[in-house]
UniProtKB/TrEMBL annotation:
The lineage of its organism: Bacteria, Pseudomonadati, Pseudomonadota, Gammaproteobacteria, Alteromonadales. GO terms for cellular component: plasma membrane. Its main location: membrane. The chain crosses the membrane at residues 49-66, 78-97, 103-121, 128-150, 162-182, 189-211, 231-252, 315-339, 345-364, 373-391, 403-423. This is Purine permease. The keyword NAD does not apply. It comes from Colwellia ponticola. It is a multi-pass membrane protein.
Length: 432
């Protein structure tokens, strides 16, 4: 697909705001979901939950801007949306039960050094990612997200009220059809904004049918100032170790996102660029701890938006960062995004995530079709998807292995890396 706007292009301001909005729509629900889950399980007060959520939006915006524009050696200078990471949910809850939110944030702050220090080794690590490994990792990123989009279309988690109702399925599939129509047959701005157009039309239809709950908008406060160190910090050794493992997992996941992004934006991902991106992840997570929210990583779904729309401008996503900051300072704005029905998000999400799979397949198509490469792809994707669709497989493993292997992306990536090193006939990595 030809890019409508390349990484360094600056679309007109009005166009940029519209294009930035679709990144916001895709990301905001996931950004606030992590603090809501962690805070809800720990039984935090409404006031404390508000602090976690507002800080998540505010810091997401700041770190997104840093990734897109670059600040000194920090930031990959690609259209990356940053947000709170589900990788840290399990370990955060475990720490929180024993040491409170202060233990979560203090452990995350110290352990962020794993990612910060690790970023300086990314040029060396980059050499371990030839196209056969890169393509497998990128494909896994997309495949692992498909079940999420399917649940969104169905209206929630399996077993929830109304799951897979005809209404939900019709809404999700209608939004999917609208996005496809705009992306394929629209011209100019209509094609570039296919995702936001589909979601706006879907939201309007749901509102007209009385399927939108506006209560969160009425309940949201108008202004919320940041409250650094609201929960304080404590530094339990067990928490730091757990968080350190989670950060190692995040390095692998973010590396996969950056490879996918380099493919859809048609830019080379050098070891130096990869280092800048991972360093921004680490610095952003440290900043999140100081401002009282959970650690960060790059968002895969926004890679899919670039693939669908052909808009790779980092300046557009910089505006998304500004919007996230405003959502953090003015929670009522964020509430307007949060009330979008899940089937609407799912209709757009299914195509976004599938586009990441396409990017991975495109990379794999450049590799030699040998038995060796076929084994690497098959075993890695098979193992990664096994963990994704049946996480119960890990039930009886030691806790540290559960943390490492809980993500299908990480499981498949590690297997691809090891098989590529162990099997004879290894190809060298090339900067793409």
């Amino acid at each position: 697909m030809e890019l409508l706007y390349k990484v360094e292009d600056k679309p007109p301001v009005g166009t940029s705001i519209l294009l930035a909005a679709q990144h916001l729509l895709a990301a905001l629900g996931a950004i606030i979901a992590v603090p809501l889950v962690v805070g809800g399980v720990l039984g935090l007060s409404t006031e404390d939950m508000v602090v976690l959520v507002n800080a998540a939006m505010l810091v997401s915006g700041v770190v997104t801007i840093i990734q897109c524009r670059g600040v000194g050696p920090v930031g990959i200078k690609l259209p990356v949306v940053m947000g709170t990471s589900f990788t840290f949910v399990g370990v955060s809850i475990a720490i929180g039960f024993e040491h409170g939110v202060a233990g979560i944030l203090g452990s995350a702050l110290v352990a962020s050094l794993v990612m910060i220090i690790g970023s300086f080794f990314m040029p060396t690590i980059r050499k371990l990612f030839p196209p056969i490994v890169t393509g497998t990792v990128v494909t896994l990123v997309g495949l692992s997200l498909i079940p999420v989009a399917v649940d969104w279309i169905a209206g929630g988690q399996v077993g929830s009220e109304g799951y897979a109702s005809i209404t939900n399925l019709l809404i999700g599939l209608s939004v999917l059809a609208i996005v496809i129509a705009f992306a394929q047959f629209g011209k100019g701005i209509f094609s570039a904004s296919a995702v936001v157009m589909g979601m706006v039309i879907g939201f309007a239809a749901c509102a007209a049918l009385g399927l939108v709950d506006f209560a969160p908008v009425h309940q949201a406060s108008w202004v919320a100032l940041p409250t650094p160190l609201h929960f304080g910090l404590s530094f339990p050794i067990s928490g730091i170790i757990g968080m350190s493992i989670a950060y190692l997992v995040t390095i692998i996941e973010s590396t996969g996102d950056f490879f996918a992004l380099s493919t859809v934006t048609k830019t080379k991902l050098t070891g130096k660029k990869l280092s800048r991106g991972i360093l921004a992840d680490g610095v952003g997570s440290a900043l999140a701890s100081v401002f009282s929210t959970t650690p960060f990583s790059s968002f895969s779904q926004n890679v899919g938006i670039v693939g669908i729309t052909g808009v790779a401008s980092r300046y557009v996503v910089t505006i998304t960062g500004v919007m996230l900051i405003l959502a953090g300072l003015f929670p009522v704005l964020g509430a307007l995004i949060v009330i979008i029905p899940l089937p609407v998000l799912g209709g757009a999400g299914l195509l976004m995530f599938a586009m990441i799979i396409t990017a991975g397949v495109n990379i794999l198509s450049t590799t030699q079709h040998t038995k060796r490469n076929g084994l690497i792809i098959a075993i890695s994707i098979g193992a990664g998807m096994a963990v994704t669709v049946r996480p119960e497989l890990l039930t009886n493993l030691p806790e540290f292995l559960k943390v490492i292997l809980a993500s299908g992306i990480t499981t498949g990536s590690l297997i691809a890396l090891f098989l590529n090193l162990l099997l004879p006939g290894r190809e060298k990595a090339t900067e793409q």
